[in-house]
Amino acid sequence: MAAAEREDPLATLATLSGRGPIYRRVLAPLMMYAGAVGVISAVLAERQHIRASGSFALYWLCAAAVVLVGVALLLRLRAWRARQGLVSPQVRWVFYAVAPMLVFGVALGVAEILWPQAGDEALFQSRPRPVIARLIASWLLCYGAALDAVGSVAERGLRVLGWCVLLCGLTLLAAAHLPGIVARLPAPPDRYAHWLMGLCFGAGHWMYGLYLYFTEEPEAT
Asked: What are the residue ranges spanned by the domains of the chain?
């Protein structure tokens, strides 16, 4: 009896695979919202001159929390309008798929807050180790892997976005440690940290949201 009541994982995956157009309509506003928060957060951080690695990690984890709360509220509003429950087998599957990498990314940020490698030293000065650039690259790798996990069975565009994010993370990780590239920069790599976050997590989400919006298939009547 207990086995019969359990949700069939294969049926859940099949449902996810067959709802691509629906997920595109849901994802478009969520991605644009996340992109807007990312860009605004980058501009505000630059204006406030947040430079220390611990402060950087705390600031962007708070920005991520704002995104998650906003996404949850948007999903709840959509579910209320459709008179559906917010938590479904498909939502639980997505949560379980992305949770490991997202938890790992949060743990990296918390570790930087508790044990900052740069201390209180201003990151305008030259540093032999691009501490924040490595943190951003790690976040990009975690997030890209999470998107790829969901995109493998849901919206295929998420998988493309996930691989783009992964490549951005790998490129940043390599570029921040190549002396030939670092020497040509007018400032250390960490000096551009907020702009990198705004570009990768802000503009990237915004552009993907626009892509989903303009390529959305009309609902069947």
From this structure: 20-214
